[in-house]
Amino acid sequence: MSAALAIRDLHVELGQSRSRRTEVVKGISLDLVPGRIQGLAGESGSGKSMTAMAVLGLLPAGGTASGSILLGGDTELVGMAGRAYRKVRGKRVGMVFQDPSASLHPQITVGSQLADGMRAHLGLSRAEARTRAAELLALVRVPEPEEALRKYPHQFSGGQRQRIAIAIALACEPEVLLADEPTTALDVTVQAGILHLLRDLATERDLAVLLVTHDLGVMSAIADEVAVMRGGLIVESGTRQQIFQDPQHPYTRELLDAMPDAQDSLVDGPAAGSTTAEPEENR
Length: 283
Ligand SMILES: Nc1ncnc2c1ncn2[C@@H]1O[C@H](COP(=O)(O)OP(=O)(O)OP(=O)(O)O)[C@@H](O)[C@H]1O
Ligand SMILES: [Mg+2]
Hints:
Mean pLDDT: 90
Bound molecules: adenosine-5'-triphosphate, magnesium ion
């Protein structure tokens, strides 16, 4: 299957002045495939978020990307102008971040936030957008979607807010979803629900997902493929089974050794795509 997003020899440099530039991503390659979740693991500062930000064209001021990021086999994102990028972001590439509140406007109803993007990007009428907004909330399993449309973000729990942020990310039917630490800020009791949702969405909607997380427990629960980053490079990549059961790189082994018990309890669970491994206490 061809990649929904093909990253080739991506380099990212940050820093405002020439003399103080640092390379934080040093030539990585990754393929995101429809229906699959590609995990990106690694210690803090290894360049995971900057990789996602480079795909989104949202690097910090002065940041530059080089190499190639090919979307849908036809659209080169590296070097794309801002105006064109705005049509890609939100429409062809959806995004979900650690803090759902950051992607939700506090003073606009959930219904309007969902509908606005669809009206702008898809040209839907107000009524069409409203209908689809309710469908999307049902899809991400927000209870009573019709009522939820009229509410404001603060009227929902953290887990529900993240579901709403996911609904917004999916509103324009993107080919690719980038999720950067989507469960890190959430109570452990709701993390598993969000992970299952991402798993189901990838499978059912043929979404190509990049799941960025430093949490190997999260990774072992839902990623199909895992890449391990360190110091701006991918030191090892493979299927979830390869990485967790037969790690080759010493750094991957180090990460696994530091992981609290989870590798045993999660990896032996059912294969990704079916009802995913989920420890009882995480429900
Ligand atoms: N806004 C910024 N300005 C300058 N440097 C930055 C900025 N954001 C990140 N960096 C630097 O870029 C490097 C990669 O950071 P990145 O945020 O990609 O790490 P990460 O792997 O996502 O880590 P974490 O697990 O902590 O989120 C780090 O050295 C970091 O200090
Ligand atoms: Mg990060």
